[in-house]
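Reopening this ticket.

The earlier resolution said the output was attached, but the attachment link was broken on my side. Pasting everything inline this time so it's all in one place.
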Amino acid sequence: MPRSPWTGPQPLLLASTSPTRRLLLESAALPVETASPDVDERALEAASAGLSAPDLALLLARAKAESVAARFPGRIVLGADQVLDCDGTVFHKPADAAAARAQLARLAGRSHALHSAVVLAGAVRDAFVETARLTLRPLDERAIAAYVECAGAERVRSSVGGYQLEGPGIHLFESVVGDHSTVLGLPLLPLLARLRAAGCLDF
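Inline output:
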């Protein structure tokens, strides 16, 4: 197997079952295990009305990390969450293809922010938020319907905004400002810098 820079006694524990976040970590040659957090995200959000979108992302990421850290003492646990904010409105994963079409119609021709929060809990403690800013092209109903059909119902339900930039969703955009991993929901460069500072990486 290729050499890993990871120096921890056990793999990094990702408080998520997100295949995208796991793949990002594994692509950086980090050993990863996953555990599902016991967090009701919508209830936590409802109880925290008034928080800014970045603070909401941090709150949700911290809840996930702490939930898993409590079950696995001594481990280095990573929690992450992403909040889409368009002019003060927070968007969630669409429930179905129809909801995705409606959501994309609201985002079309406008700019929005993706706030990606990371919290390290357990044996290492840290937290930060990175933001990417994205602008969709003006899209009519036909273009939106064609995209949703191309991407498929499962893909459009799997991310906030109803798109995945690493897939057919790239066709929707006019501009993207920010690191690609931030758009995908796990800002790798600041995460690796913090793990390096904590002595978890050897280069």
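Reporter confirms the inline version is readable. The two ends are 18 Å apart (CA to CA). The mean pLDDT is 96.
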